[in-house]
Please model this.
Amino acid sequence: MSPVGATGLTMTNTHPALRRCWHPVARSNEVSSNPIRVLLLGQPLVLYRIKGAVVCFADRCPHRRTPLSLGSCDGETLQCAYHGWRFGGDGRCVEIPALGPGGSVPSQARLIPMAAVAERSGMIFVAPEQPIAPLAVIEESEDPAFEMGELPAMRARASIGLLADNFLDMAHFPFVHRGTFGADEAAEVPRYEVERDGWSFTAHREHPFANREDPGVAQGIRPLVQSRRLTYRLDAPFHLYLRIDFVEAGGSNVIGFFLQPETDESCRIYTTLWRNDLGGDPDAMAAAIKFEVAVLEEDLRVQEAFDELVLPLDQTMEIHTRSDRSTLELRRLLADLVVAADQPA
Ligand code: FES
Ligand SMILES: [Fe+2]
Model:
C-alpha cells in the first residue's frame, strides 16, 4: 500500500481502475423485463430482468451496433429492434430471423457481458471487470426493524470522488447546511478516529446536538442538548454509509449514498434512508426524505461549482488538517486501488 499518491494522480469519473470495481447503475424498482439504458464509466449498458434476475450487457448489438435497449424481452430472450436477432440470458444469439428456421448462428454473435451483476439494498450493482474489492452490505437494509425511504435519483454535473469526499467531510456543516441542520452545529471538529480495514474504512464521532424532534424534551423527560454518535463507512470505491445513533432518545438513522459515475462530467446519485424510529408513519418518512433532499441540494450547490471534476490523489496537491482525516483516508484508499487495478486480476 502506498503512503502517498503518485505525483499529479487524480481520480476522474471514468478512471480505468474503476472498471475493476462495483458501481450502482439503477434502483431495483427501475428495472423490469423492459430493457433500459444506463451509463457507466462512459459506456452505455442495457439492463433488464429474466425471470426476476437482473442481466446486464453492453448496450450494443453485435450485428450492426444498434442499442439493445431499443429492443424487447419476452421474459426469456432479448430481441434487437433492428433485425430481430434474439439473445439468451447468457448473451448468446439463439435466432437470426433473416436466415430462416434452422439458420446457423455465427459463434461470435454474443453480447458483451459484465464481470458481475448483483441486487442488494434496493439497488442494482455492476462490476464491468473482475472487482478488486467485495460489494458492501448495509446490514440495516436486511433488518425488518428498519423501514426504507428512497430519495428521487438525482443527476449532477459533478466528480464522483468529490461527492464521496463531501459525504465524508465533517467540517462543512455550519457553512453549507445553514438552511437545514447546520445552524446549530459547532464549527470546531473534535478529534475522531479513522480505521482502515482492507478496502473499507470507518470514522466514528460522538457529539452534542440540540434534539428538537425528541418529544421527550417537551415532556421534560430529557434535556434539549443530547448526544449523537456518527459512524461513517466507505467501501471502495464509492459505497457510502452513515449511521446516526441517538444516545439518550434512542433510535437510529442510516443513510446509504450510492454514486454512479456516468461520464467524466455526470454522476447519478441515489440516497436511501433506513430508519427504526418512525413507527411506520408514511408522513414522517416523507418529511425525512424531503429534508434530505434539501440537505443534498445544499451540497450539490458547491459540488456542481467545481471547475475541474477530479479528486486529487496526490496529497501534495491540497492542504490537509486533522479535521480532514477521513477525506485524507479516501485519497489514500483510492490511490491504493489505482495501484491494485494495475496488477493482473
Ligand atoms: S443490429 Fe441488431 S439485429 Fe441487426
Ligand atoms: Fe453535506
Remarks:
- Residues 61, 63-64, 66, 80, 82-83, 85 surround FE2/S2 (inorganic) cluster (ligand 1) (CB under 6 Å).
- The radius of gyration is 23 Å.
- Residues 282-303 form the longest helix (22 residues).
